[in-house]
Amino acid sequence: MVAVFAMPMIGNSAQVKPSKKKAPAASAAAGRILFVNKCSVCHGSSGQGDEGPNLHGLKMDDATITSIIETGFKGEMPAFKSKLKAQEMKSLIAYIRTFKK
After folding, report:
1. Nearest residue to 58 via CA among 86, 69, 71, 11
2. Which of 11, 51, 56, 76 is the most exposed place for a label (fewest CB within 10 A)?
3. What average pLDDT does the segment 58-76 reach?
């Protein structure tokens, strides 16, 4: 005969679910690749500005930055709305947010 004992579970360790949120560093890393490929030609390799403005220390909220990237500036910056998916846009902004003044 086999005896089966029920052990009380200590804590909720078996019920811990992994976070579904992407780590900011992972998002910014993906954004860096997008920035290098799509933005650095005008904004410089590290966002310091060149033909396009310096992106260090931006004082705009994410919605404003998104709007600018999506619509661009006629004759100055192309619109990227049809070229970037929503998650790519978030990653790009996460990377731009890593630029310091």
Report:
1. 69
2. 11
3. 95
